[in-house]
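User: I'm writing a tutorial on reading structure tokens. Could you give me a worked example: one chain, its sequence, then its tokens, then a sentence or two explaining what the tokens reveal?
Assistant: Sure. Here is the example chain.
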Amino acid sequence: MIYNTIKSNAYFDSVTLMLFSSHLGAIDGVEEAAVMMGTDHNKELMLESGLLTPDLLTKITSNDLVIGIKAISQAVIDEALNVLQSHFENKSKSTGAQEVTLRSVEAAIKHDPGLNFAVVSIPGRFAKLEVMKCLRHNMHVLLFSDNVSLEDENELKDFALQKGLLMMGPDCGTAIINGVALGFANVVRRGGIGLVAASGTGAQEVSVLVDKLGGGISHVLGTGGRDVKASVGGKMMLMGLDALAADPQTRVIGIVSKPPYPSVLKKILAKLNTIEKPVVACFLGEDSKVFEGTQVIGCKTLESIAVKLVELEKGQAPVLDTLPKLHSLSLEGKYIRGLYTGGTLAYEAMLLLQQELGPVYANIAIDPTYQLKEVEISQHHTILDMGEDYFTDGMPHPMIDPRLRSERIKQEVADPETAVILLDCVLGYGSHPDPAGAIVKAIEAAHAAYPNRKVHYVASVCGTDADPQNGIQQRKQLMAAGVHVLPTNAQAARFAGWLLKDGITHESR
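And here are its predicted structure tokens:
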């Protein structure tokens, strides 16, 4: 039986929505459950999965919270509603730490006048007001919210610059400040490498590889992806570089980003030429010639910048593990389908596969010719960034809740043209408690539905052994399920490309 209820004008962030859904799904007798914001996309998803009755479609607005529960009995639904209500009322079990609930920035400042940092995650249209309050009270800000207008972003960053404060974001998902991980970040050792990043999972991949190679991180400063566009002008990228240049803990500086707009790139390079510390940059997809005549060391991949940063910090080149190529694999199909939760990892994979295989279709394509017309339908070689707005409009980010990717894995296995499925597995604070387990369950479900399909899976794990999910255990789960696990995202993409290009014996159907 299906139960639905609508809470009008009730907003919850993506982390809270995922927790609500997971708590309901863990109840015996609950077959499926979802707690989502009432966007058109989410209503379609709930309708297709049988969690929403059609008569409610026109009654739901995008500001409403929609609850859908499919259970074996009314008694189970009643239990689920009691559990959900307890979470709404914040009556979940205490962690043992003293918690103080403060409902405004002013109340927080009054409670602790020494506060100097704030993380803001509210609907984008309301973010400016709250961030401005924080800045006026001399707090640095990590603005996690998306859908913040460009005008608001510039106004907030200009004000922050006047006050000498960081305003990281909007849509800034990762930072590490004095060893404290914020947003989606990993447990990495402290050290002398500082990063400024306009890409969240790019920062994660580099910091994780630095840790794996024996280096350490002083700070990771996120900027938000729009910061390096002409419309913002690199305001926080430039300030972040100044901060790391002045920081006594930081001995080597790294920059990770998609290619900045030419006018912004010119500003960044001019700034870098004034910094006395070694600087390594990875502008994914940028021509290495842009670094000629500068003191900047340019790198083409996230793994290569990590290696160079550790080499400069430690004074000797580290060795990055690689896996031997397989001699031959029998494989059906002829295309790679990359399903990514991390946007920068998807972008890097797309670039590398294009070098190996030629055109790759994507929802983040550089060339409009290869932009997917229908993101729900893959064509040729396809890379999907499933953290893009289309997939996260009212839904938890796939690093938090991987259900949409799990469904897409099944869809790709059903396609006889799919030969290889390429995946990322992102660990760390904020991410799903067992992303590898979710991937394994999706693979098992897909092959139970299509037992005659032969598909190879290739993945990399972006995380450390000290992360809450434990990198060792995550890799073991994937390998036990037959997934080819590579040490880095770049290696995984190259390996997948090799399978299609050189390493397989094709079978016709």
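What the tokens reveal: The chain is about 35% helix and 20% strand. The two ends are 41 Å apart (CA to CA).
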